[in-house]
Amino acid sequence: MTGRIAFQGEPGAYSHEACRKARADMEAVPCATFEDVIDTVKRGDADLAMLPVENSTYGRVADIHHLLPESGLHIIDEAFVRVHINLLAVPGTKLEEVESAMSHTVLLGQCRGFLRKHDIRPVTGADTAGSARAVAQMGDPKMAALASELAGEIYGLDLLARHIEDRAHNTTRFLVMSRAPDLTRRGTSGMMTSFVFRVRNIPAALYKAMGGFATNGVNMTKLESYMVDGSFSATQFYADIEGHPDDDNVRLAMEELEYFSSSITVLGVYPADPGRN
Fold this sequence. Notes:
Blueprint: E1 4-8, H1 14-22, E2 27-31, H2 34-43, E3 48-55, E4 59-60, H3 64-70, E5 74-82, E6 86-89, E7 100-103, H4 105-109, H5 112-117, E8 121-124, H6 128-138, E9 143-147, H7 149-155, E10 158-161, E11 171-178, E12 191-199, H8 205-215, E13 220-228, E14 231-242, H9 248-260, E15 261-271
Helix pairs in contact: 8-9
């Protein structure tokens, strides 16, 4: 192992799977909450954090955009992970024996077709990996879990059905974060830059601030707004753009953004995951 990477959830969670995909040589450290993940890295008990930010089916992960700017950490990489859902049960179980399946409510909603076809009743669990662990502890062949194959390996469950999700494109995007930024150019799919900003209180400020990206040919892949401190008048924007801050077109676009903004915080500069394409 070369260091430790913290994630939110139980061993076998999809965030754990993301750690395996993006940093297979590191020890994965489970944490109870996203805040705990961040604090674990800030204390030095882990070198990196693995945080989910958005899902192709369900949109952005709640609270993450509020946590990132205040985390004190820097984005150094991203990872796109296909969410493959599997039916897991205690060893020796046959599919026709299963009457109920436990998982997080989001995963249950993604497998409605399979569950209806096999007359399996959905049961809401706290999370995916925790449901797999609970099924292993119960030892009842009538109760299965919907989770990752990694969870099945960890908790000693049989794989009864693989990739049973209704939508074949379901993917979660994760950010890898560290205590120190990395501004070097790396990877083979181009660079990404993420930042948050607040526009000045003038008419059409956002429209004018965005103009620099259009005129300089900078592709903005994400722009989201959210309230700050519960105020209806204080709005912060989160943005992802293609390119490196040292690229001429990015530099010019950011200079124009700065002119129309009251604050800008760069969250990270990192290689684009090939999964973007």
